[in-house]
Amino acid sequence: MPAVLNTLLIYARDPAASAEFYHRHFGFVSSGEMVEGLIELSAPEGGANILIHQAAKSVKLGQAGVKLMFSVPDVDGFKAQCARQGLEFGATHQANGYAFANAKDPDGNSVSISSRAYRATAAAG
């Protein structure tokens, strides 16, 4: 039986602030209500959903072991949109026919925007 990755759980010091971050900058939909210790965010365009969980004081946040990568067709356009909302990404990097840029969420977790998923479409068109 295959396993399907459809949800990412993120530990946060302030779950409401983290839920707002992913809603505002990446378009996730949520009631913002904490249910069973979790705030659930849905990806309206498909892809994995996010659960935000209150982090215990002992949890180390902002580890470099995991990075959330969001696919966008226009990295610089998305960066400009986020900048108007108060989220600054680092430099745009070019790699093998696609671009990417990095930022951090409110808890120091790494997030990236990348056009990698769109490079085959662009090359075929």
Keywords for this structure?
125 residues, alpha/beta, Signal recognition particle alu RNA binding heterodimer, srp9/1, 2,3-Dihydroxybiphenyl 1,2-Dioxygenase, domain 1, 2 domains, four-stranded mixed β-sheet, three-stranded mixed β-sheet, 3 helices, 29% strand, Glyas_Fos-R_dOase_dom, Glyas_Bleomycin-R_OHBP_Dase, VOC domain-containing protein
Overview of the structural elements:
- There is one protein chain.
- The protein has 2 domains: 1-56, 2-Layer Sandwich (Signal recognition particle alu RNA binding heterodimer, srp9/1); 64-125, 2,3-Dihydroxybiphenyl 1,2-Dioxygenase, domain 1.
- Helix content is 22%, strand content 29%.
- It is built from 3 helices and 7 strands; from the N terminus they run E-H-E-E-E-H-E-E-E-H.
- The strands form 2 sheets. Strands 4-7-6-5 form a 4-stranded mixed β-sheet, covered by helices on one side. The chain has a 3-stranded mixed β-sheet with strand order 1-3-2, with helices on one face.
- The protein starts with 6 loop residues before the first strand and ends with a helix.
